[in-house]
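Letters spell out the chain; backbone shape is given numerically. Take this protein:
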Amino acid sequence: MEKDIVIIAEPTTNPAACKFNLDRPVYPGGSAYLGNREAARFSPLALRLFEIPEVENLLIAENQITVTKTGHDPWPVIGKQVGAKIREHMRSGQPAVSEEFARSLPPEGEIRKKIQHLLDTEINPAVGMHGGWVELIDVKKNSVYIRMGGGCQGCGAADVTLKMGIEKSIRRSHRDNFLCGQIAVALVCTPSTARARYLRGMAVPAMISTCYNRSPERGSA
């Protein structure tokens, strides 16, 4: 008898986004940001999720799927639909993301060079005006790990800054390469935490990944 697929929905600090954590791997060892329905052609799972009209974009990483929605329907309503699509996909036996996606990604060194240039010439000069800075921690495949400090460290709006500013700038800087534009960005809390998690293979990229001393309400999807 097949074991039930357990999915836990976890709110994020962005009310339009919700994380769906599964009790099994979805895309082990990889991450894929699908920013629109065109990009979904590289992901059988994304094709199913984009059948939900309210789904705007999503990030698939390890055993977690982060979905951003539009519209006014609350997450308890959309979440049930998302959970049903995820279960439908998991039972299909199809991969979450096609091999074509991984094969077509630019080399890590190329991504690192472009991201560092963007930080040096655009992002840090702007953030520095408010006493902050952004550091590139690492690049793994198409996942970019960054850390914010100075005036940004501990700021309650740091995740919003990442979502609305840094993340968009990074993806926009790679618009000449469609797949490279599907970059997953993770904001890590401290250098020690970031490096320790990364070295242990525990760092999971997210559209917004922040550290808060609180336990958000969770629910089954």
